[in-house]
Amino acid sequence: MNQRAGRTCRPAGPKRLPDPRVVATEIQGPEDVVADAEGRIFTGSADGTLWRLTLSDTGVGRAVAVARTGGRPLGLEPTPDGRLLVCDAQRGLLRVDPQDGTVGVLANKLGGESLRFCSNVAAAADGTIYFSVSSRRYGLEDWMGDILEHTGTGQLLRLRPGGEPEVLLDGLQFANGVALAEDESFVVVAENGAYRLCRLRLTGPQAGRYDRLVSDLPGFPDNISRGRDGVFWVALAGPRERGIEVLHRTTPKVRKAVWHGVKPFPVRVMALRSDGALVCDLRRAGSPYRMVTSVCRSDAFLIMGSLTERGVAVCEVDG
């Protein structure tokens, strides 16, 4: 893969994230949160339930269960027809109708092998779907093992309407969040284990070129959502740790021996322009809501989800 260095993310310092309100505490482990065109929030829970939340003017949310995947839903993407694309860590890439709860499998194999650990998804206007596989060695239950062992088995896949999944990028370090540029000229994928966001050009004279949109992030980038004005919102699931980088230079046996002891982290989210320039960097130290794995913006609110926490965190932001 041909890569250029891209922007290095060295912000002057994070600003304080407003106090979040935790709503819909009946939802356990809302790993990804997304907003549809009407401002409704969708998320999935550890028991396989998909939920729809409607926020009031004060940020208080009411949650309704709309479907069950029969697996473990992670990344979500609303589509213009009112349905949802769902990356399920156990079942593959799904399409769900939240009106009647219908669940259909779009892809669960690649080259005859079961898709393992589908993570996040984005859809183009022509129906083409881009989605990530975090690891071909570990499942969701052992995700930290892949980060610390630095396996580099993540992938970015494409599924065209009526086609079969095809590999666009391979050898990624724990591929995670996926988002399309507003003009669909490129797709961004988060390499969680390499602290960077990578870009694959889809149109124009540089189509097929792969480079780094942002390098040297201060933490592990997880899910990505595209907000207004084409801004990418990125959740950092944990801070960059010198000890983890040292582990990457040790033997696989040593890395495997220590990864079970790693704990969740505080809240940090960032917004970036389509050229990688930093818009804002928000952090909340000491928050009881930890390990934020997703963030999206809906009107005046930032909505955050977590692989490990109960409920969805909501805070009001300016601008």
UniProtKB/TrEMBL annotation:
Pfam families: SSL_N (PF20067), Str_synth (PF03088)
Keywords annotated in UniProt: Glycoprotein, Phosphoprotein
Residue stretches making up the Strictosidine synthase conserved region domain: 125-199
Entry annotated with the keyword Phosphoprotein: yes
Keyword Phosphoprotein among UniProt keywords: yes
Protein family per UniProt: Belongs to the strictosidine synthase family.
Name recorded for this polypeptide: SMP-30/gluconolactonase/LRE family protein
